Amino acid sequence: MEETYLLNVEGVKKKILHGGQGELPKFQDGSKITFHFQTLKDNFERTVIDDSREAGIPMEIIVGKMFKMEIWETLLSSMRAGEVAEFWCDAIHTGMYALVSKGMRRIAEGRDPLEGQKHRCGMGNMFDYHSTGYDDLDELQRTPQPLIFIMELFRVEEPSAYKRDTWAMSKEEKLAAVPVLHSEGNRLVLRKEFRQAAAKYQEAVICLRNLQAKEKPWEDGWLKLESLVTPLVLNYCQCQLELGEYYEVLEHTTELLQKHKDNAKAYFKRAKAHAAVWNEREAREDFLRVADLDPAMAAAVKKELKQLGERMRKKHVEDRKRYQGVPSLMPPPPPPAHPAATRTARTATHTPAQGAGTQHPWRSVIWAPLPWWQTYPWSQRAASAPASPKSSPAHPAQPTALSLQLGCGAATHRHAAFPAPCRAQRHGHLLPPPPQSSSGATPALLVPRGTHST
């Protein structure tokens, strides 16, 4: 294992741990390098910081695409396929390693490497948040130091030998890839493979958005690219409608309509998404907007509105059946023919306290809760209402309903002309003074079942 200086680069030393095979590969812009790496501190213990083998996935970089650790391209370009080498790098080459390691760790954890970052350079985000989220990387960031990289080179692929991701393509390659991806998506739609078709449309949109980012908004170049983006986004939304991803359709169509307010197809797809998630008012507004913008779609709009009305009526019927047993959501029951006809519940005879006036057997029946539409606040007129014409001194008229609040000793009297007391009164809140008998005793009655109204 011979120690040498690598390509006269200052602050770099190389040791070959295992020789490679064949000639030195040709590294050109766009070539993909696949390798494993291990990062160690330059201390007595040689503390391991990162090891790509633990994640089980080798590292890949594209030559000439401004990888943050520029020195890695230099190190790998000195290796042959199958070679294992150890590189010592001075601190002047390792200042960005904390950011690179942070992104790789997040990817290994299944997280977005750009999560939480603002639109600025990596160092700007570092100074903004003051931490990478990993203690060992924070230490490297505070105190830059030499590091040791052990690398094993697997293969080097030429640009034409692999399918490149959109970010690795040039401008000409992205523009050439868009119509191909569009055609592939249309073919997959005809085969009803909507998920795969949506991926093709999305990839094409990403290519165009990357190119748009380099143009000034609303100028000729930007508008030309936008005209290519719009049909791709609409096709993508149609696939998402077929897949049931309605809220994603709402998001993308709304964003599209912010730029193109007269796009009838975008309104139509958004209306269908609103209808699918039971936003009836929004769906009707968008459908009517479509008919105004494009009279040729009036027949389709009429059909969709008819289907929307049928679905909403069916939903209302189902909801009525579903909530049939909930008192607060049901319509009021019809009034009984005679109050006495409904008093069929279990009864018991109550004897007033000693010293009371006229002895009379009061009928007690089980209290039943009343729906909100039969509630009515206490009225002072109940106390001064005239007596029933059927009453007599021997048989005084029985109150239509009496409500007893257990635990606080308060009772309320309701005249036949008024509905039941409100729920707050039944539960002891703001209760009026209880009625008193001629002897001062409070009759202990419960509301008869079925006598909620006269």
From TrEMBL:
User: Gene3D superfamilies from the xrefs?
Assistant: 3.10.50.40, Tetratricopeptide repeat domain (1.25.40.10)
The segment(s) forming the AIP/AIPL N-terminal FKBP-type PPIase domain are 27-154
Q: What Gene Ontology molecular-function terms does this entry list?
A: peptidyl-prolyl cis-trans isomerase activity
Q: Where does this one sit in the cell?
A: Cytoplasm
At the top level, the lineage of the source is Eukaryota
Q: Which Pfam families match?
A: PPIase_AIP
Residue spans of biased composition, Low complexity class: 339-353
Region Disordered: start-end pairs: 312-361, 424-454
| Protein transport found in the keyword field | no
Q: Residue ranges under compositional bias (Pro residues)?
A: 329-338
Protein keywords: Cytoplasm, Repeat, TPR repeat
Q: Where is the composition biased (Basic and acidic residues)?
A: 312-322
Q: Name one GO cellular component term.
A: cytoplasm
Q: What is this protein called?
A: AIP/AIPL N-terminal FKBP-type PPIase domain-containing protein
In the record, what lineage is assigned to the organism producing the protein? Eukaryota, Metazoa, Chordata, Craniata, Vertebrata
